[in-house]
Amino acid sequence: xxxxxxxxxxxxxxxxxxxxxxxxxxxxxxxxxxxxxxxxxxxxxxxxxxxxxxxxxxxxxxxxxxxxxxxxxxxxxxxxxxxxxxxxxxxxxxxxxxxxxxxxxxxxxxx
Length: 111
Fold this sequence. Notes:
This protein has about 110 residues and is mostly helical. The protein is built from six helices and no strands. It is globular. The protein starts with 7 loop residues before the first helix and ends with a helix.
């Protein structure tokens, strides 16, 4: 993408800092899987492949992530139970706050 100069700090907060955020989420998912019995190798591979597959679906289909999420949430199922719990603990808000903190720090470093 060609990014306007005024949006460079925003792009940096998402695309430059974002991989570290994704690595944290992969690590957390793998840790949970290990605690539930998978080997570390299996857990890391499954978590990383999950992010790769989900990202590919967003890019290839052009669908909004919320629509794709809803498509895999069966009524009363395990996925919606997990989604609800992540909403309760504020995952979305925490991710937004992390990107905003990275943006703010990028701006501070530019001054």
